[in-house]
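Weekly sync, protein design subgroup
Attendees: M.S., D.O., the rotation student, P.L. (late)

Item 1: inverse folding check
M.S. brought a backbone from last month's batch and wanted to see whether the design step gives back something sensible before we order anything. D.O. pointed out we never logged the input encoding, so this time it goes straight into the notes. Structure tokens as presented (240 positions):
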């Protein structure tokens, strides 16, 4: 059954309406914080800003607390309201997406930790151009995925899936280039390994943003598109 935006806004119980709306708002607020964490971690790395990196690490506790609160509220909704159909899909989707947001926060914290190491070493190493580019791409993916969640926008969610494929390609290209550089000049191996870890975290953030977009499609269309090709996704999502 395909859901509409109106389906998520009208229920027999007004209290149910309010509970679901509250959790949805909490989820989007957490998303905003996580997006900021990623942006600040990247800035801390590129600008060798140890203080900003430290603030990202400290804010991770707030992200974790928000995840726990959302999970608790969702469990209460399941226990007290026993949702069905599109409402149940929204609860399930937010629960899964909540985990992905927390993991994005974890990856941002990893980048912040590496940023502090880089600031101690001084000079910005090769690979920062790729880091900036892929970082900007995954930040946009997070923003677009959250916007799709807020608007129940399936087309925008599908665009996030496409963007993730591009990030994966650019990550592989950047990794090969940096591996070649390390072989040609072993003096920079230690620094390049840190850059490779940063790029790996960014690639994982892109994967989690893709997961958020998949949950939007699940909420609206009722289609589980995990591990499904683009052609098959288009067939499942846009032919209905």
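Designed sequence read out in the meeting:
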């Amino acid at each position: 059954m395909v859901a509409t935006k109106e389906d998520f806004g009208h229920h027999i119980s007004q209290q149910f309406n309010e509970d679901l709306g509250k959790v949805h708002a909490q989820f989007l607020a957490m998303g905003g914080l996580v997006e900021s964490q990623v942006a600040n971690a990247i800035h801390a790395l590129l600008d060798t800003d140890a203080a900003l990196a430290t603030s990202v690490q400290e804010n991770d506790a707030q992200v974790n607390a928000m995840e726990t609160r959302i999970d608790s509220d969702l469990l209460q909704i399941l226990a007290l309201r026993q949702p069905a159909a599109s409402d149940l899909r929204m609860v399930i989707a937010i629960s899964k997406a909540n985990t992905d947001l927390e993991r994005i926060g974890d990856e941002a914290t990893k980048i912040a930790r590496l940023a502090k190491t880089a600031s101690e070493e001084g000079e910005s190493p090769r690979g920062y151009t790729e880091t900036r580019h892929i970082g900007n791409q995954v930040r946009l993916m997070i923003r677009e995925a959250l916007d799709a969640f807020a608007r129940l926008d399936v087309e925008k969610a599908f665009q996030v899936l496409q963007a993730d494929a591009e990030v994966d390609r650019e990550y592989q290209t950047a990794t090969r280039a940096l591996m070649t550089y390390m072989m040609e000049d072993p003096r920079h191996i230690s620094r390049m390994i840190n850059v490779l870890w940063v790029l790996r975290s960014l690639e994982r953030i892109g994967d989690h943003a893709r997961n958020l977009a998949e949950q939007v499609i699940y909420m609206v269309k009722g289609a589980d598109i995990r591990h499904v090709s683009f052609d098959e996704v288009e067939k499942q999502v846009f032919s209905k």
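Discussion: The domain at 5-238 is CATH 1.20.58.220 (Methane Monooxygenase Hydroxylase; Chain G, domain 1). The radius of gyration is 20 Å.
Action: P.L. to compare against the previous round before Friday.
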